[in-house]
Amino acid sequence: MAMKKSLILIFYLFLAIAAPSQEPVRQIVDLEAFHLISSHDLLDYAGELCSEKYGGRLSGSPGYEAAATWVASKLEEWNIKPAVAGSYFQYFHNAYTEVLTQGKIELVTSPLRNVIDLFFPDDYYPGSNSGSGDVEGEAVYVGFGISAPELGYDDYANLDVKGKIVLMESGVPHLGNDTMLARWEPYSYHRYKFERARELGAAGLLYVGLLANPNTSYFADFVYAHISESIAEKLFAGTGRLYANQKLQITNAVRPQSIPLKHSVSISASTQHFPDTQSCNVIGIIEGSDPALKNEAIILGAHLDAVGSPGMLFPGALDNASGVADLLGAAHALSHSAVKPGRSIIFIFFGGEECGLYGSTHFVQNPVWEKEKTAFMMNLDMVGNGAGFTIGGGSSHPNILRHFNTANDRYIHRSLGASQLRQNYGRPRTDAAVFEKAGYCTLGLWTTGQVKKIYYHQPLDNLDGLTPELMEDAAKLLYISILGASLDENLIPQNRVD
Hints:
This protein has 498 residues and is of the alpha/beta class. It contains 14 helices and 23 strands.
């Protein structure tokens, strides 16, 4: 035992930060475990998850299940225990749709009926939940595709879309984060928009924004695709208006500006829907070593799924193989640390995030640890490209933030900021938002200072877009900070949502 201890460098660091009256932060760091975290390993983890064999990790698919099994194998290798009644897997229902081909889109100009072919992936992506088949119809711009009588707003007023192809925006026309946005929230969901268009008889849909997105409705008789803004502009040719100006007028006045367009559109799609499949969260736990603190837990989470292969592989490197790799790096160090966490540490790799936050929603409804005994949850999403860090919600939780500040000042030496906890009145967009809404003290580790171009939900979201040195520092920052917080007897998160 003495010989083993002599091979491990353990630093005890006592630093006073913030107000002089505040208790100093005590950090006990096993430098051998600290140096287990390597940018090479983290890039290997991300590369594994982005490989063809997982098919873009679409939640519910066999590829996602294989990726989840691989993550669980790493936890088992590091002796991190399964947290779900002897299993690493927490299952939930998750239908999915396999996109079999790139499909085809043609614009038919009026009056000469010239045919313009669109090109994948520069002009369009096939719909991740599109029905299979061919549709053709006149194009109609329907703004945000919302009928909200209580808000005095209807994009479909005096507009016949039966048998036509609707051109539609995502989101809502109200842009402020305030109580009014809460009234718009039910209309912001992609599923609402698709269901409303189909209810009014639309034959198909073009969604503006070149982003792959499995968080949409599937109807066997409804075909859709995503198009670039430049193609939307082409559809406005002959109307005497510009697409960009039309959208701007809607958001400036919060008033519909829907119009028939001069061209027709044909959309072809080939898909197969799987309605009865399931997905899973992968959950492991390191039990706390302190008799008084071990019944409390710190949760660290990152979503494992990506958007699949709609026409080609979308690797999902930054979003979110990076966050998963960072979390695996921290888990490896914490599991091998000679200094053991005082509180229990729970690692959750969420499924179904891209489909609609399914995994995090299922967890907060079926927790493996009591919410009242959870110190805080920290989420990692797209933590792989940048020069510095910020702790989302950290300024509202100074007793937690000080562990990150001390770790960064002593070991990491990157810019580190923090933001106040701010209520989001719109629809939840991250797993962290689900936990926050459910009443957990919730923080997020984010990056600052973009280093490389970001290809969000695009095929070029590959390993070339990652900065491995930043990922190494993210995992090291987590290891030191979470270890320190787990041992802090005075850790009292403020502003817990009840």
